[in-house]
Amino acid sequence: MSGFRTLLYKEILRFWKVMVQTVGAPVLTALLYLLIFSHVLEDHVQVYPGVSYTAFLMPGLIMMSVLQNTFANSSSSLIQSKITGNIVFVLLPPLSYLEFFLAYLFAALIRGFTVGLGVLLVGLFFADIEMRHPFWILAFALTSGAVFACMGIIAGIWATQYDNLAAVQNFIIMPLTFLSGVFYSIHSLPPFWQSVSHFNPVFYMIDGFRYGFFGHGDVNPWLGLGVVMPFVILLAGVTLKLLKSGYKLRH
Amino acid sequence: MSPAVRLRGLEKRFPRVHALRGIDLDIEQGEFFGLLGPNGAGKTTLISILAGLTRASAGSASIMGFDVTAQYREARRALGVVPQELVYDPFFTVRETLRLQSGYFGLRRNDDWIDELLTHLGLTDKADVYTRLLSGGMKRRVLVAQALVHKPPVIVLDEPTAGVDVELRQSLWNFIRRFNRDGHTIVLTTHYLEEAEMLCERVAMLRDGRIVALDSTANLLHAGAERRLLLDLDAPELPEFLRPRLKGREGDRYVLDLPDFGDLEGILAKLREAGVVIRDLALRQADLEEVFLNVMHDTGKGRAS
Q1: For residue B161, how many other CB atoms are within 10 A of its CB?
Q2: Closest by Cβ to A250, choosing from B14, B55, B105
Q3: What is the dotted CATH code of the domain comprising B5-222?
Q4: A157 lies in a domain?
Q5: Could you give the ipTM of this predicted complex?
Q6: What predicted TM-score, i.e. pTM, was given to this entire model?
Q7: What class does CATH assign to B226-285?
Q8: Low-confidence ranges of chain B (pLDDT < 50)
Q9: What's residue B297's pLDDT?
Q10: Domain count of the fold of chain A
Q11: Are B53 and A250 in contact (CB < 8 Å)?
């Protein structure tokens, strides 16, 4: 397992060495969302009784940061290695595809959690945030992060240039996360968009995560986990299959 | 003792190119082996299959008796590859790069060996410099060090001296020769045929995905041993007794066949007797380049007919 440990360490070192860009920037972005939306909406919107809008916004922003950064970490690491050619450094050693998968998965989760924690710490200055059910917080952060980490690995393997990746990021990841109830409760939406939201798996991730904070959500967290879990299994399975076949890595 | 490298019926078809068309080859342990051929002959594809970077369409490849797909862990542990492209990871220093590479091979606390590699490759004062800041030649040395962190019994170098200055080329070859003396098998591809001639005990020539010549370097040179005598004479025409040897002219010089250098003395004596003055004289011995060109030319003709 020493190969796995080294690859994980390398992947963590990779983002840590440029943490201004990989951790600092996304925390700042989340902070800006927090400042602007809470300034505009604080006095007008109360989603759940007894929960200020700023407090309501926090879990959504944290989860959005976790998802975007787990995806960004695995996908950008792979595409950079492929384009610069240094991917051979990890293809030549006797690493199994499972070690390869786990190293990229855990590194992405660690990056996502670091950013998420950063957003949480900054957010504490702006709102009282309670954490009623740490189990649900952790369960949704882990499973949802894993889904996006896998998507990142798949996208990184599939993409042949930065452009491909930017397309996935801007046309799939961003809309999925923005239209999932980060900034609002779907109960405030017209009935049609409410039912559309139910087909967006990210909605369940954010809702369940938020439930962990307030003990209050749009759907039951067990249902949420029941929706997210199959995605974890499916995407992990697809990723492992791709890695095993050597798709676009070993020609 | 299993051979260092064994290829059997190795084929590789890419969507548009049939890169390897059935390669059978054994490279014995301890050999210094050369793999030659023009661009597109399949050298890099062959090496990529050994390294597990490319998968064969048919046939098999093994390293130290380990199949490169079924026993990829053992096979890769036995192999060190210096890739042709000058690749590096911009995030890490030289020492970090070598420590990581050691870790991938399951080696922790490999610093003694890393220090030794750095010393021999003249990289000691660059150990804590980011690899992206190094010159091309230095980056090449880092790649060599990376390939050797796990002391692999089989070392493959794919065009390692392309674009490298003479001094580094010399020190690199001295270093690789030492490995070879210690029993490591070396497989080398190069465009510099004099390098192959100087270093390799045995050579395979590839063309269009096939091996078209495979022999010891000495035999290849001997078989293609077309020794020539070049004479520029102060005479209106070539003396009668030399006519059978005439192969052609290069400017003012007659190119004469001279299979045995021992004949030279007789020829000179006869010329003196005939009163012919020699303005210029040169001997030419076959080198690998000539053999290479002949082989490539002949097989090319063979294929066309």
Answers
A1: 20
A2: B55
A3: 3.40.50.300
A4: yes
A5: 0.86
A6: 0.86
A7: alpha beta
A8: 302-305
A9: 73
A10: 1
A11: yes
